[in-house]
Amino acid sequence: MSGPPNLGGVCPARFSAVRDAFAANFAEGLELGAGFCAAIDGEVVIDLHAGWADRARSRPFDGRTLVPVFSTTKAVTALMLARLVGAGRLDYRSPVAEVWPAFAQAGKAAVTVEQCLSHQDGLAALEGPFDPELWFDWEAITARIAATAPRWPPGTASGYHPSTFGFIAGEIFRRVDGRTLGTALAEDLAGPLELDLFIGLPPAEDSRVADMQRPPGAPEFGELTPLRRDAFLQPWSAPPGRDAARWRRAEIPSANGHATAQALARLTAALACDGRSGWEEVLAPGVAEAVAAPRITGPDLVLPFTVSWGAGVLRNDPIGAYGPGRRTVGHSGWGGSCVFADPELGLSAAYVMTRQSVHLVADPRPGRIIRALYEAL
Questions:
Q1: How many domains is the chain built from?
Q2: Which end of the chain, N or C, is less packed with Cβ atoms under 10 Å?
Q3: The pLDDT value given to residue 2
């Protein structure tokens, strides 16, 4: 079997099965361009990339190719909020209205930060109709969210927030820090740590962005309840993506991160290594454990799964999408990307790709790579 086109990066002999699993996805016609990176104690041990960054197959997918990672962005957003918690500037248990007074409207005065981050606040979707262009107006969309009544009693169930999560978390961050979350990410982490990771992409980086090939069909949502329709399937459910430049420039902390697999794996090492990524302290000691602590476990009202949420991250137990670790946390994005952190092994890893699949969570392509990684460990 010949290897994938443009295969490059780092993969020591002890991880040859990981390279083989990565290559098998290409051999089976499942990939166009992809990257996988794993770090132990914050130090990169595997960093593979192969294929093409464009549909015309004229631009190799290399170590600097930026990929839209959609909801995998939520793990980065969770980490940014955790930095405020570690600095003593935010408390997960505090009502959101303490920092964002307008949020108290429509019966939400007691809703806490951790309830918002664990998808318990009842704001999984906005009722319409309304012009989806509103998602590009930060002040307008956050005002609409603040005025919205919960769709279920907060704290009684989780309901995954595909779009609203980032605006709620981002507005909490802005109210506490004074900067937008994407600006703080660039200034405090991505710049100093030399991470190819953006929420709000500068125009100068456009030439590095991969073309995405949309999935062949819709995900399997189970019973199409009104809530699931509003969260995923209405014309106003998410920001429109017709204008690529506008989408890239916007800061949408739930959905429009652009990153390499290496940047995601290195940053998320902070959740595997008690706040550290290599020699750098990203989170205060003890905060990573607080991020991962279970906030709610049970059937989700939007995702067709039983899930367990931490403070903005998906806990691997019971869903099992990120290897065998019971304490592992992570997040997946539309079409297949994912990132995870296993504190038992000090392991963090990420997968990005250009050909999207129909899987909401546990795409089999990263799944086979993750299995090979754990077997090698």
A1: 1
A2: N
A3: 66
Tokens of 110: 């007691």
Has 71 been annotated as catalytic?
Answer: yes
Provide φ and ψ at 298, rounded to 5°.
160, -175
Dihedral (CA of 84, 88, 92, 96) sign: negative
Cα dist. 50→65, 349, 362 in Å?
10, 17, 21
Question: How far is the C-alpha of 97 from the C-alpha of 276, rounded, in Å?
Answer: 31
pLDDT in tens, 5-47: 999 999 999 999 999 999 999 999 999 999 999 999 999 999 9
Annotated catalytic residue within 71, 158, 163, 277: 71
- The position carrying tokens 């969570």 is 361
Is residue 1 one of the residues assigned to a domain? Answer: no
Q: Pick out the chain residues at pLDDT < 50.
A: 1
The answer to the question of residue 3 being in a domain is: no
Q: Phi, psi (5° rounding) for residue 169?
A: -65, -40
pTM: 0.97
Per the domain annotation, does 2 fall within a domain?
no
Residue 64: the pLDDT is: 98
Paired sense of beta strands 306-309 and 280-281, if any: unpaired
Q: What values do phi and psi take at 288, rounded to 5?
A: -60, -40
274 Rama class: left (phi>0) / alpha (psi -120 to 50) / beta: left
Is the residue at 226 inside a domain?
yes
Which CATH number do you get for residue 271? Answer: 3.40.710.10
